[in-house]
Give the backbone structure.
Amino acid sequence: MPITLLPASAAAFAPRSSCNVVLNTKVDPWLTATLKRINRIKRPLNSVPQHHRCLTETLSSPAAIWTLCSMMLPKAPDSELRKDSNPLIEALFNYQLIHIEAYVVHVDMVSQNEVAFKLTPETIETLVEYHKDIYCADKAASTYNWSEKEVQVRKLQEEFNQAANKFVYRTNAIALEGLEEDGAGELLSGRSEEVKNAISGLFLPLLPPPPRITDVVRPQPLLPSSPGTGNWWQPTLPPPHPAPVESWKVVPSSPSATSSGDSNASVWASMGLNEIQLPSPTPSYSQPYTQPYTTSGYFSASQIMAPVAQLPLPSMLAQHQCSTSAGFSGFGWDRYQEYAMPYAM
């Protein structure tokens, strides 16, 4: 982006001087039509120098004051405004319409194709007074007091004074279509709203200093020896030793008859005594044992029905000899040698 140079008359606090106009080698038709419209005396506009002379004399006239926009501002601080139930009366007595006026300091139709406006001294003075007497008063009343508040308010006023004198509104050169007789004019095509927003941006807020960060005093943790702590700390006790177990009570590593019998209890409980079949020995040519068979000498069905439910399977008898005598002592299996059948080959 090329650097845009403004004339010395556009600087802050610089007095007004002749307008600086730079035209292209070919003048646009809209500029020729505008100059012919505003001239009371018909002047020849057949060349670029004629357009340059006519435009410079028109914009440099003391009457060539443009109205950029109008702003509604309060007449007094908020605490002194009139209160009324009718909003129209409040608006009439409490607010004033300020016209933001400026004059043309620069016209460039070669590189930037723009026109630059600078505020008039009267407009600058009006804005500075409003900022000092009303705006700063309202801002100071709405913020809390601190040691350097007055210094900050004066600094805010000085910054606004500098900004208002430096303010230059630059827009497209087509804005010269709003030119009127004697060089005065108004901005068209919504450009007045842009100026209003730019002027409102010059009113900076009064910012109080941030609160100071204070050190937070935290209570020190209480030590165990400090008084008044109560039972907030309890020593960790070692896990208790298991109770001594006698050697004869140690459970063997192999499964017991009781645990095996529990898993097969449902099977034996569902079977009756008569359903148990033992394999019979191979018959021989010797005489069989003729002693009459009686059940009174061995067991009673009503007496062993309950223990049978706790007995293991016969296939487990050989594996768990430690539980054979314990589980079958009442059944007579531990004395099977005494009742061997006399079979002969």
Observations:
- Residues 256-261, 295-304, 322-329 have pLDDT under 50 and may be disordered.
- The two ends are 129 Å apart (CA to CA).
- The CA atoms of residues 68 and 191 lie 8 Å apart.
- The longest helix spans residues 121-141.
